[in-house]
Amino acid sequence: MHIPDQTGRTAIITGGSSGIGKAAATELAAKGARVIVAVRDQTRGRAAAAEIGARAESRPLDLASLTSIREFAAMIDGPIDYLINNAGFMTATRRATADGFEGQFGVNHLGHFALTNLLVGRITGRVVTVTSRNYRNAHIDFDDLQWERRPYRPFGAYGQTKLANMLFTRELQRRLIEAGSPVRATAAEPGWAATGFTMTTGRRILDRMLVLGTRLLAQSAEGGARPTLLATVGEVPGASLSSPGLFGVRGAAALAKVSGEALDDDIARRLWEVSQRLTGTEFPLSAGV
C-alpha cells in the first residue's frame, strides 16, 4: 500500500521489536516518522531500533504491569500522531500479571486500555489496536473475566481478549466523537502471518497442525503488517477493521466487515467501565474538548 510522507510524525508501537510490529515500525520510519518501540526486553528493543534506523528508539514498557505502563506514559513528551497497540501474549496455562490479572486479558486488553487512556490526551492522529479473527467466535464472560472459576482454555482466553480489543476500539471511537476529538480509533487483524508469535490451543496435535500450517501457508511479517499500516495512515473511518483482503488470511489490506458481539454497544460500554475500575485509569477528554 502507499504510505504518504511521515516526516515530523511520531508513532509508538508496543511489541515493536519483532513480527508485524517491527515490520510496521520499519515502514513508518522509512517514510520519515520517529518511531518509539515500546517493549519489555530492552536488549531486543535496542537491537530492533538499530536495525530500523536512526529514526527509531526503544523504551521500556511491560504491559503486564500497571506501574510500568504509568512510568512509560510519564516519559512521553510532546504530541503523538499514532499509538499502535500491537503487542500480543498467549500462554498455554493460566498466568497472572504483576497486578493479578489473567495474563492474556491483562496484557492484550487491560494493558493497552490503560496505556491509551494515559496517552490519549496527547494523541493527534490514530489509536490502532491489533486484534485477530478469533474475536468472531468469542464471548465476554463478565462473571469470570479472569478465568478464575472455569477450566482454563488458552484459545478461549485469547479470543476473549481479541474481542475486547474490538469492543475497546468501538467504545473509544464513540468517546472521541463525543469529546469532539479528531482522533480516530481503528483496528487491524494481520491474518495468518509468520511472526514468531505462537498460537496455543492446549491440544498438542492441533498446536502442531498450526505450526505446520504457518510454515506452509502464512504470509510474511511484512504482509501481516499491511492491515496495521492501512489502519494507521489509510483513509479509513473510525471504529473500522482492516484485514487481509483474501478471506481475511493474507494478501493486500482492505476494510473488513465487523461482526458478532463486537457490534454490541452495551457490552462495549460495560467492558469499558469494568476496565476503568480494574486499571484505575479513565478517559481524560470531556465533551466538546
From TrEMBL:
<comment type="similarity">
    <text>Belongs to the short-chain dehydrogenases/reductases (SDR) family.</text>
</comment>
<dbReference type="Pfam" id="PF00106">
    <property type="entry name" value="adh_short"/>
</dbReference>
<dbReference type="InterPro" id="IPR002347">
    <property type="entry name" value="SDR_fam"/>
</dbReference>
<dbReference type="InterPro" id="IPR036291">
    <property type="entry name" value="NAD(P)-bd_dom_sf"/>
</dbReference>
<dbReference type="GO" id="GO:0016491">
    <property type="term" value="F:oxidoreductase activity"/>
</dbReference>
<keyword id="KW-0560">Oxidoreductase</keyword>
<protein>
    <submittedName>
        <fullName>NAD(P)-dependent dehydrogenase (Short-subunit alcohol dehydrogenase family)</fullName>
    </submittedName>
</protein>
